[in-house]
Amino acid sequence: MPKNRNAFSSLTAWRRRALSGAVHRCWRWAREAGAVTAEHPGGLRFARIGEGTRLAFPQGTVFGEPWIELGDHCVIGEQVTLTAGLMPDLDLGPEPILTLGDGVVLGRGSHIVADTTVTIGSDTYCGPYVYITSTNHSYDDPHEPVGKQWPRMEPVSIGPGCWIGTGAVILPGARLGRNVVVAAGAVVRGEVPDRAVVAGAPARVVRSWHPEEGWQPPLRTPAPVPIPAGVTPEQLLAVAELEEG
């Protein structure tokens, strides 16, 4: 190959590397500048953003912020939708509609649609693409398009300390107790007791904890290594943010 062609190829490769580096630097800057916190809310006006809470950039659809309360040290991943009310610019009254407790983690691409009250307890973690809604389509009239029929709304309550796996769906009226595990892809409705594991569509209890007997059926894996003493919540949140990124 002629030398001038080699030189041209080298120059092209250098330009591509330089352009790629510039794009990545700009994207890192945009992610940092576009993140929403209590100190830097951008154009969003939540009823409350707690200390240490961060909404990653880019955000998903967000409206009804005056009726959304976010606790302290929450991690909200990229493209997460948070809505209160059926549509923007409604007056929803004096009380919050969507409430996240302290330390809640919402994975990338998750949706919370709160047309009536949705409450998520402290230290509940959601994997990516979890869908939580207080509204469901009705189809009572067999002659009218389903999308044009007035939806049904029921409050949703998720207790503290839960884990909700990737792609799970929490339907209107669901009431999850404390430390509930929802398997990936499960579709949950109705009441789930404390310290239960649910899986399937519709979800059913596949494992539960009893004070005298422990987990039944028994766990098949050894207990994980406990969190070392002295690890702070901020360090745990930093690890969660790295996993989200």
Shape: globular
* Amount of beta strand: 25-35%
**Biggest pleated sheet:** 9 strands, mixed
Rg, rounded, reads 22 Å
Structural class: alpha/beta
* N- and C-termini, Cα separation: 43 Å
Q: Name the strands of the widest sheet in spatial order.
A: 2-5-8-11-16-19-22-23-24
Description:
The chain has about 240 residues and is an alpha/beta fold. The protein has helices at about 5-35, 235-245, and strands at about 50, 55, 60-65, 70, 75, 80-85, 100, 105, 110-115, 120, 125, 130-135, 135, 150-155, 155-160, 165, 170, 175, 180, 185-190, 190, 195-200, 205-210, 215. A nine-stranded mixed β-sheet has the order 2-5-8-11-16-19-22-23-24, with helices on one face. It has a seven-stranded parallel β-sheet with strand order 1-4-7-10-15-18-21, with no helix packed on it. The chain is globular.
Give me a quick take on this structure:
The protein has helices at 3-34, 233-244; strands at residues 48-49, 54-55, 62-63, 68-70, 75-76, 81-84, 98-100, 105-106, 111-114, 118-120, 125-126, 131-133, 135-136, 152-153, 156-158, 163-164, 169-170, 175-176, 181-182, 187-188, 191-192, 196-199, 204-210, 214-216. With 245 residues, it is an alpha/beta fold. β22 (196-199) and β23 form a beta hairpin.
Topology at a glance:
Elements: H1 3-34, E1 48-49, E2 54-55, E3 62-63, E4 68-70, E5 75-76, E6 81-84, E7 98-100, E8 105-106, E9 111-114, E10 118-120, E11 125-126, E12 131-133, E13 135-136, E14 152-153, E15 156-158, E16 163-164, E17 169-170, E18 175-176, E19 181-182, E20 187-188, E21 191-192, E22 196-199, E23 204-210, E24 214-216, H2 233-244
Parallel strand pairs: 1-4, 2-5, 3-6, 4-7, 5-8, 6-9, 7-10, 8-11, 9-12, 10-15, 11-16, 12-17, 15-18, 16-19, 17-20, 18-21, 19-22
Antiparallel strand pairs: 13-14, 22-23, 23-24
